Every structure is written in C-alpha cells, then in structure tokens.
Amino acid sequence: MAMSWGWGHWLAAVGLLATMLGPVRASEVPDGPRLFQRHCAVCHGETGEGGVGVPLALPAFQASVSDAYLRRTIRLGRPGRVMPSFAYLSDAEVNAIITYIRSWLDVPRPAFSEARVEGDVEHGRVLFAERCAACHGSNGEGGTGTGVTFSRPRDLPIIAPALNNPGFLAAASDLMIKATLMRGRAGTPMVSFLEQGLSESDIDDLVAFIRGFEKSAPQLRSHLKAVSHEAAVLVYESPYSVAETVEAVKRAVIGKNFRLIRTQRLESGLFPEAEQDPQQVIVYFCNFNFLNEALKIDPRVGLFLPCRVTVVEQDGVVKVMSINPKRLSSLFNNNALDEACNQMYQVYTDILEEATL
Of the N and C termini of the chain, which has fewer Cβ atoms inside 10 Å? Predict the structure, then answer.
C-alpha cells in the first residue's frame, strides 16, 4: 500500500493528461459541442478563442482552411508540437467537431485540390530566408513556446506554426499554403506576400521549398517513439534509513543550486497526522530561473513542478523516487521541452545517486 501511494502521487500529472486526452465512447449521434469540450477546449479555448492551441474562431483562419485540412489535423496532430493525434475518434465524431467549429462563424468554407504547385526550390529557399525564417525558423521549425501569453508577446494571438512538421505537411495542400501566402491571415502577423511585392511565381517557389521539408519531417516521428520508451519513474535503493536518506536528498538538492521548499509526509492532507506513515516522505525543491524558462516553453510543466523526490520504506528497503523528465516530452508532445527535460533528468539522477551513495 505504501508503494502504491508513492507511484500515485508521482504519476498524478500523467493521469490528469491521460484523462483529458482519453477516448470518448462513440454514440449513435456524435455531439460536436461535447466532443470539442472533451478533446479540444483545454488548448483551443471554450469557444475557440485560442490559448495553448491556435484560435480556431479567428475569421481569417476559418476562411483559409478547408474541412479536409481540419480533418487531417485532428487525425494526425502535430508530432512534437503539442497538438496530439486523435486517431481513435470515429469519422462521425471528427465531422461533428468540425461542424461545431464551423458553427461559430458565417464564412465561406474553402476547398483546395491536391494538385502540386511547381516552382524553383532554390529561389524559394532564398525567399524563405528573407521573408519567412524570422517567424517560422530557418528550417521551418516554427516559433518558440505554446501560444499562450506567457510564451509569446501579448499582442500576438498565435505563434508561427512549424512548417516542417509531418502533421502540417500531410494536412495542408500546396494550394492551401499558396492561398495563405498570397492573402495572409488577418489578425495574425502573417501578411499577404502579394501586398508585400512578391509575384505569384515567387509564391509558387516558396510553396515548392516548403513542400521540400517533407524529406526531413519523418525524423520527428522516430524521435518521439524513442522517448516514449523511457521509464515513467526513476527509482534508486538507499542503504540508509528514511530519515538519513531525506537529509542526504536535501544536501544533494542544495549542492545542485536548487532551493529547498518543504519536506512533508507523503500522506499529508490525506489522513489525520497520527495516521500518516512517517516512512513516506516528499522533499520539494525548485530552481526558479529554470522554472520560469520551462514555463515559457510549455506552461503545462506546472503539473509536475516544483521538483519532488519521494523517499519510502517498503518491506525493509528504502527507495528514493522521482518522475522521469525524459518521458515528459513524449507525453506532452512538445519537442521544445527536450533540452529542459534532459537537464532535469541529469539533475534528478545526480541527486538520487548522491543521496544513495
């Protein structure tokens, strides 16, 4: 029972995320509003106003994307860019979500053929560096952050999407990309390149260059698959008592330039103090500079911060545990978290190793 509390406490963030993204049992008549609230509102806002996800109720957005694009986006997601895949939804459920999204605005629904746009890729590369890279990244990797105001300027409703993302490239047709480049997207930093002086031929060259990102996009999928095999929890055995191990954890935390926040029993708040197991203890600590930088990358890291190490004794064996940060990028589907998670993995392993020497 003692070990189950430790695991439950540390995996609460994972469980919460799974609850938010878990499948809904299909019904005979899918309820679009209910499905949207269940699967989409947490990121895109209750009425599509945006947040972690793009603002779906933006008129210029709805007027520039087809139902096919929305359908593929829901199905494929954006690997490594927060938007998960909802491949388990039925066709009827996906269509119900799209119908609900379209019900917010009375704007024409564009339809684009799958015809490829031919252009000069090398000229498109030059134009991309001059006109697009400042927002979309030199390699089309997109803007930094998740789109909420903590990670982008408040006057921007959206960060620049990743154009090299396999989900985007599979969802967006050449003609849709071309139309966006020609018209821009009112209400966002995306301008009309026709109004900026480019010719239609120039825009064709840009589309051809962007389509070329497909050659490198599959690397994102293989990376995420590798990360998902990481263990969810790091566990070390300690040769010391629980009290001695807790003190060793504190010394290791301070040695890593983290600030101790508090130490408490694992069952604190769950049972009266007299009934709490003194052999189950959590040490909370934080580096606030790191915390602020991590929140800028993805505010959802607040689900598992501040940092925590749990010390428990079970069947005479003292164990020291922490969540495995390397697992988080795959769970949160945000490649930008990789560096921060790798840093925290090293911090946790150093602390756990030092405390159990």
Answer: N
